[in-house]
Amino acid sequence: MYYSRTEDYIYGLETINSNSITEHPKVANKMACFVANGLSASFTIVAGYFFHSSMPASDFHSLTLQVIKLLTDCGFMVLRIVTDNHPPNVGLFKNLCGGTLENYFNHPYLPMPIFLSFDYCHAIKNARNLFLSHNMNSTTGVISSSYLKALYGLQRGWPLKPVRYLTKKHLYPSNLEKMNVLRAVQIFSPTVTSALKLLKEEKYEDFVDSDATILYMENMFHFFQVHNISSRRHYIHALDGNVAPYVNISDQRLHWLNTTFQNYIDDIQSTSASTGYKCLSSETAHALKFIAKSTFLCVQFLLTQAGFYYVLTRSFSSDAVEATFSHIRLKGGSNDTTDARAAEYALRQILRTGILKSSSSANTARTLSHISRNELSHQRSTVAEFAEEDVEELFLPTDLRFKIHSLQRNEIPEMNLYSASVAFLSGYIIMKLQKKINVMTALPH
């Protein structure tokens, strides 16, 4: 989609003719949304959205290819597709790979691969939910949430708590609270595992055999940590190499993702099955391994073939999609069951203002973000209107372009509500002036 600020019109919207609506229409109560998120530059663009009732797998597949083609035509290189492991999305991945689920498939329009992955935030939530629901087994011992619940009961009577944020919502979440990513990460955090280690070392009776549980929690937190890298310098202040950006393919974290973590998940599944314990669900176990393998391959490709000097993996998540849907619900009156008109209005506001405002309880890193902090050209491509021999005449001489560039302001204005409203009003004034000029030039002299 393309928004013209001067015309206050969004190009690319498709509507249905009112005459084709039958007496008993099929209500489109779902929305598929494609959001482009930058890896080498900071931008988030709503590439397309489609209201539907129950989209067939073939239509979902063709729409995805259409969005990839449109983004490629605009000059973007689609490198990775991320979604949750909902069955329709798994079916889409299989169709893209020719019938079998693989970590990548060949780009249909460029000589490069497109990597496929599930969202690591959804995977960590599922791992937490299964950890709280039943015991599992591994070669190091039984994995049980009873140690965590014992810690919660023990510290309730203490004036100074080892884990101050551990609450009932962490251990006994409702169906809605199970969707919270922050609490899932907090359960596996070093603060909790350090408290369990201390109680074990101090020979507390309820924590003697907690080694396997601590190892499970540490592995799940490490899995989240190596996928949530968002800064080039944070590791210096945090004194933690696990949050450093990836800069070479010999990084130990890549080996851990490709080998150690894969073997650990297989160990839980096989040992639990052989000893009569419940294990991770097949979907969750496969998603965890699939994400780890995809991240390993994608980081390798970026560092060796795509020319990246470093890789920040938080951009691999579906935060952009979560922020978009949270913005839609927030604009619809904080309503989870919003209507199509309110959803479309919220999406148009993203295009007009360039601002994504998420709810404070949304599963996103920031509650306020911008679709871009770079000066992206809003002009529609018109190169196709000219013949190849005329293209060179469109460009100015090099020395003249340097002189013009030196006169331009280099400061990028801060993107906020004030600048968005000023830009919107300026575009409206320019549109009116253009109409006046066109009318005056059309009058006979």
TrEMBL record:
PANTHER family: PTHR48257, PTHR48257:SF1. Residues 2-96 form the Transposable element P transposase-like RNase H domain. InterPro entries: TNP-like_GBD (IPR048366), TNP-like_RNaseH_N (IPR048365). Coiled coil: none annotated. Residues 121-230 form the Transposable element P transposase-like GTP-binding insertion domain. It comes from the Eukaryota. It holds the Pfam family TNP-like_GBD. This is THAP domain-containing protein 9.
